[in-house]
What we know:
CATH class: Alpha Beta
Number of helices: 9
Low-confidence stretches: none
Structural class: alpha/beta
Radius of gyration: 19 Å
Strand order of the largest sheet: 3-2-1-4-5-6-7
CATH superfamily: NAD(P)-binding Rossmann-like Domain
Largest sheet: 7 strands, parallel
Mean pLDDT: 94
Shape: globular
Number of strands: 7
Helix content: 40-55%
Amino acid sequence: MSxxxxxxxxxxxxxxxxxxxxxxxxxxxxxxxxxxAVGGKNADKAAALARWAEDGxxxxxxxxxxxxxxxxxxxxxxxxxxxxxxDVLINNAGIGTWGIDEGYSIDQARQVFDVNVLGxxxxxxxxxxxxxxxxxxxxxYLSSGLGRxxxxxxxxxxxxxxAIEGYAESMSYELAPLGIESVIVQxxxxxxxxxxxxxxxxxxxxxxxxxxxxxxxxxxxxxKERLESGGVGDPAEVVExxxxxxxRPAGGRPLRRAVGQDTKExxxxxxxxxDQVQDQLLGPLGLR
Length: 288
């Protein structure tokens, strides 16, 4: 395709990352699909992507990458640059939490932030110099509706997504004058493998929380029922938005896109209110 992009995606072993890698490559974009342990626990998933690409003649390349390891990042980015370059970075890799916060250790909280927040920072530091040299590019951040709204029992994950929202928006002002656009995608609840890999509390403290523990169990059971009954969104909705933003002509991209029947309306309302405040603060500086 004449407007094909070279897209570097983190966290493609499952979920949005896996599906988006295939969707973009199927449309003729060159995709660098990265994940941890391509020769270990994710070997089957890496092989499935590589086999799909080979069988269909799709321009998709599976690369080893751990967003918590700067050497791993440097190697993967260098490989992509040597093979032609990078036009789009999709910061997708992430892990979640579910549990009463007191039960989590600080090391567990550090693990979540290391992947969800510092992982994106490491990726930006590795890729943005190449986009800056080209004078154009796009960075997409997979945030969450939980980067704007708050529920109990997801404190660490929510904090990491709030951090992403602030980091990504601040970065957008710095990068825009260089020709580099930013998009923050804010999904609601979707039925992906993401939920099978949540970090659970190290210590069970529910017995000390009385009515709060009952609420925790009720919300957890309700969420499980929604997953099992198919009462959550179709991940294809998020993939469609990611493909749209990759293919959208430069200069017309929104900073944020909320998606998901359960949170889109509420998250969009907060986005709109924050936009008004940011306009008042940054308009006089020519940044809005």
